[in-house]
Amino acid sequence: MHSFLRVVLILVFALCAVPASADFTPISLAFAPHAQFPREDFTVTGLRLSLLYGQHRRMYGLDLGLVGNVTDSDFVGLAIAGGFNRTTGPAKAIGLQAAGIANVNHGRFSAFGAQAALVNYNLVEAFVAGVQVGGLANLANKTTIYGAQLGVYNDGCSIYGFQLGVVNRANSLNGVRIGSMSTSIFGVQAGLVNVTSSESSILGFQLGAVNLSGHSNINGIQAGFFNKADTVTGLQIGFINISQALHGLQIGFLNFSRSTFFSVSPFLNIGF
Questions:
Q1: How many CB atoms sit inside 10 A of residue 246's CB?
Q2: What is the rounded average pLDDT for all residues in the chain?
Q3: Has residue 147 got a pLDDT over 90?
Q4: Band of the pLDDT at 190, cuts 50, 70, 90?
Q5: Of 55, 47, 49, 57, residue with least CA distance to 26
Q6: Using an 8 Å Cβ cutoff, are 48 and 68 in contact?
Q7: Which end of the chain has fewer CB within 10 Å, C or N?
Q8: Torsion of CA 40, 43, 49, 54, to 10 degrees
Q9: Of 62, 97, 99, nearest to 82 (Cα)?
Q10: Average pLDDT of the segment spanning 229-245
Q11: What whole-number distance in Å separates Cα of residue 168 and Cα of residue 164?
């Protein structure tokens, strides 16, 4: 109840901040962009109901579309569509941006609550405080997320919280990541195959059948059947362990490190 009231208050303040305009309406009814009232160049400051999809210059408030919602400029509010939500200007989702197929944001986007669809596609700098759920994919390599990113394929800029998927990529993650392929971590990563393809820092724990982090500095634990890292400060444990520099222990059937006294060592290797 308190969360709902907060969302309502935020929407009220947002509506109060709407710039003055002669072409605005508190409600819009749309069948399609050329079959709607009022016309497309109006600003909606309340409720938009779309049978197929509605399209307006600006939208502030509650946006409901059976198929889709399109906003050409500013959007602030809550958007729910059976098919898609598309914004081309600055957009703020208060509470929820949800679509049955896709959320596509071409301008700067921020969400306070949840962004959910089969595919979430944020093309430019974006911010999500809450959860981003993509049934198939979250395509958000310029998006900072405070909370959780969930999907089959996840691509984010900076993640502060939790990332769960089959394939995970991010510039940095502070918290927990569980998946099959990833780029860099600050927290915990667990999956079948964990991959870092560029220079990165992993602070915490990486667990996978195969960990391929040849350009990464690992500070903590890397555990798997096959482990590869640039610099390991901590513990590397697996059947085969490979590192360029080791400051700690390697435990495995074969251990490789250029910085230790023995560059190849069975069972145990120690670096300082």
A1: 25
A2: 84
A3: no
A4: low
A5: 47
A6: no
A7: N
A8: 30
A9: 99
A10: 94
A11: 7
Cα–Cα nearest to 268, from 256, 255, 259, 260: 255
How many CB atoms sit inside 10 A of residue 39's CB? 14
Identify the CA nearest to 242 among candidates 252, 219, 201: 252
Q: Alpha-carbon Rg of the chain, whole angstroms?
A: 24
Phi, psi of 202 (to 5 degrees): -115, 115
The structure's pTM equals: 0.71
pLDDT tens-digit readout, 96-130 = 999 999 999 999 999 999 999 999 999 999 999 99
Residue 172 — pLDDT band, cuts 50, 70, 90? low
Alpha-carbon span 145 to 111, nearest angstrom: 9
> pLDDT tens digits for 14-33?
444 444 444 889 999 988 77
- β-pairing, 58-65 vs 75-81, is parallel
* Sign of the alpha-carbon dihedral angle for 229, 232, 238, 241: positive
Q: CA 103 → CA 133, 137, 205, 270, distances in Å? A: 11, 11, 33, 50
Greatest CA separation found in the chain? 78
